[in-house]
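We emphasize that the prediction below concerns an isolated chain of 212 residues; any contacts that depend on oligomerization or on bound cofactors are therefore not represented. The input was used exactly as deposited, without trimming of termini.
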Amino acid sequence: MQHCLDAMIAELERRGPAGVRLGFRVIGDGDAGLLLPAERSSIRARDPTRLRQSGAARSVARRLLRQLGCEDAAIPRAASGAPVWPAGFVGSMAHDDALAVAVVAPVGRVRSVGIDVEPAMPLPEEVEDIAVTPRDRCGGADPRLASRLLFCAKEAVFKAVFPLDGEVLGFEDVCVDLQSGLASVPGRSGIGIIGAAGCRVLALACVEEPPA
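Result of the prediction step, given as a token string:
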């Protein structure tokens, strides 16, 4: 799995905007202990599984921030549930039952980012009926995972758009075209979207400043 995930993360970094850093961590039993005090106090959850997931994701994000020159910054949780990133940076985190992922970028050309991870399994039919619309395009994705990839992409778009617009969107509000690498929501188009499927399904969404 390590080799597969390394390759998938490298592909997303290669295809994403310059300066964007991605990483992952397999969630371990002691990962709740990775939370910094400021992070732990901001997270209301007491469930050990959720705390492990949060600790793993934040440890990945802090590692990426260090790579970009930001040392030991806490990433507490806001009242909205969104992570609070250190000044000068944007980012996003996600996890499934076993894997945590994160993306970080310096503020500049990239205004906001979103990431999601899903198991490499077909999307349940009842979820597909809600999440996927006739407007969505999955490009040349494996048909078995196409709906899962679209679902994952929409989750990433939600995370990229919310810090900018403060809007809680539904799946029907997001149109994804993985072939063109673009997504749109009401009032905002040209959102970059990249998907990858292998041992996991991953999606990265980026909102960039328009060219001058």
